[in-house]
Design brief:
Strand content: under 5%
Radius of gyration: 14 Å
Helix content: 55-70%
Number of strands: 0
Largest sheet: none
Shape: elongated
């Protein structure tokens, strides 16, 4: 699974938001790990549309929610980062 990292786009995190942002970045890692477990459990990869519908689509939705939480946390203390949703989509490698 290959997923883009939002870390550089996030930039400097205000001190008040650091713990929440770190927790959400760790959540992004957990989401990738879970998707990788699901892929391994499938064995030989089935139809690409099946993978999109059962693994990649739900993963993207969870990543969007997590990226939104990161932006909201930062926005409480400073300028809210824009465009983090571009880091939501992942690919099977």
């Amino acid at each position: 699974m290959s997923c883009p990292s939002p870390v550089q786009a996030i930039g400097t995190v205000p001190s008040g938001a650091r713990a929440e942002v770190a927790a959400n970045l760790a959540e992004l890692d957990r989401q990738i790990a879970e998707a990788n477990r699901q892929l391994r459990a499938l064995g030989p990869l089935p139809d690409p549309q099946f993978i999109q519908n059962t693994i990649l689509g739900p993963l993207t939705a969870r990543r969007i929610a997590t990226l939104d939480r990161i932006a909201i946390a930062i926005g409480r203390y400073g300028p809210r980062p824009q465009g983090l949703q571009r880091f939501a989509s992942c690919d099977v490698v």
